[in-house]
Amino acid sequence: MANQQQMANAIRALAMDAVQQANSGHPGAPMGMADMAVALWGDHLQHNPKNPHWANRDRFVLSNGHGSMLIYSVLHLTGYKLPIEELKNFRTLHSKTAGHPEVGVTPGVETTTGPLGQGITNAVGMALAEKMLAAEFNQDGHKIVNHHTYVFLGDGCLMEGISHEAVALAGAWKLNKLIALYDDNGISIDGQVAPWFIDNTPQRFAACGWNVIDAVDGHDAAAVSAAIASAKHSADKPTLIVCKTAIGKGSPNRAGTSKAHGEPLGAEEIKLTREALGWTAEPFKIPKAVYADWDAKVAGKAREAEWNTAFAAYKAAHPALAKEFVRRMKGDLPKNFNQVAFDAVVAAHTKGETVASRKASQLALEAFTAALPEMLGGSADLTGSNLTNTKSTPAFRVDLAGDVVKTEEGQIGRHINYGVREFGMAAIMNGVALHGGYIPYGGTFLTFSDYSRNAIRMAALMKQRVIHVFTHDSIGLGEDGPTHQSIEHAASLRLIPGLDVWRPADTAETTVAWAVALQNAHRPSALLLSRQNLAYSPKSDLGDISRGAYVLSEPEHVGIKKTHGVIIATGSEVQLAMAAQKLLAARKIGVRVVSMPSTNVFDRQDSEYKQSVLPKGLPRVAVEMGSTDGWWKYGCAAVVGIDTYGESAPAPVLFKHFGFTAENVADTVHAALLKA
């Protein structure tokens, strides 16, 4: 007990000192959760500090990420490559100890937790990936996938609506290896939460199919450890452990108050806290005995070595499965992927079908999901509209015992019914991608990207290969009206750094978009797809589609020798541009038509290629059923767009009403050329 108390106090001291030195941060949460960390990391967590990417490690998520000094302290103390100097540099430029934990920056951090509620939701995705991989790869006598996902979370995470989405799905999927420890301290920034947070959290989780262990003393490491041990025996339910704690534990004047939440304790209060805790070490100094109690390097190495031995036996018994598991966990695509992609694009081009781009997406998915068993699809209750399911992706289901249901051929389901939970779907997909082993994609209407936007942004920040399928991408949605018609959505998604947005015009462009999205191992993608049918645009060369924009048609194709201007179009508006090109030719005006399915990808091309597509000196007119703002950067003389909300009416009526006709595009180009 004495050792555990000193182990916890080491976290408290480091949290106090780092926040004080940075003059910024949240000391209260790590001080309050310190004993919980001792219980989990000291007694249960399966990890190896020397190899943070060991495939069968337990995943730990600090959902209340403002308490980042807890995870930084524990990573340092257990032996990860996070020296004390990094803790001294807490919240400073380019340190490995940012204000909120960031995956890919700090060794041992599994996900970037800043926006509350997304950490627990990422954890649901991680636990889902573990469950599915176990069902897919484990064989009799060989359990190579066998680990838990642990989450620390607080009141803020539970108040965020996304937590309801995540908790419900975790219960439905019976994720019994998901264990959440709730830091129940009753305090948030505004003070005691009782006036505005009156949920009966244990009953809420129980109603969602969770096992609940209530009223555990969060400052009794042995009690917390016993609760975790009990949770690990749950056969068919995730577990919530309610840990009663005091924020800022140990601080004589700030413990249990909101003053401990988001500001330094101050030199005098830190002195008093040290005295109250009996902690005599200087700032950022940890006694050798405490380091020894925390050190997990030897045990971690032994655990991984044991797993390596087990995996070697698995490899000997099931060499093909072992090879596939290694490939999948590395995130490598199959060796034949380029050929699969080439064949799919050529097939789309050869057939030249007139279909909605959402249907073109499904046609591409038929090829890719058949070749890539790691593709894990889904939809937020719009499968029949998003067309994200294929012959190779039966529905994911779990039986009453909590086991993953398999087909007659022994395959697991690879298409998830997320229900009407767009935000939860997006953040769960992030967790799946972070865990490894699957490439997640999920569908909803483009206008509902507003619900999932922050999780999309987090995928980009974390550089995760997550693919969003957004259908019904414009006023072409028709009678459903302005609530469902996307106007600003394409433009706003394009503003997210690190996200590739594709708005393809036909089957070939859609297939290329999918191929590039799958190849982007460190970048999420969003595919914006039409409800209405789109005619196929004949192409002389398919190679440049992947560069984001390309010359689709020259004036000579419609009998004009000289080029007077350029029409840039995306998605469904490419066919308008092609029709306008013919109308302008009748007026002896020659225009080049440029299809720009991805502005993001095109913007990354070298200047020589950009100029070859958009030559200097030629007036440019952009055409897209959406906000015009983003198009002026291309030096456009005019933009045929829409900067108001839509209307409820049949799509053809709306197109004419808002000026999306070949005649209006031609007139706009003609007028722009007259002004040039």
Task: Please give a structural write-up.
The chain is α/β, with parallel strands linked by helices and 676 residues long. It has 25 helices and 20 strands. A six-stranded parallel beta sheet has the order 10-9-11-12-14-13, sandwiched between helices. Strands 1-2-3-7-6 form a five-stranded parallel beta sheet, with helices on both faces. A five-stranded mixed beta sheet has the order 16-18-17-19-20, covered by helices on one side. β4 and β5 form a beta hairpin. α12 (297-317) packs across α13. The longest helix is centred in the first third of the chain and has 21 residues, at 2-22. 55% of the residues are buried.
Quick structural overview:
The protein has 676 residues and is of the alpha/beta class. Helix 18 links the parallel strand 11 (439-445) and strand 12.
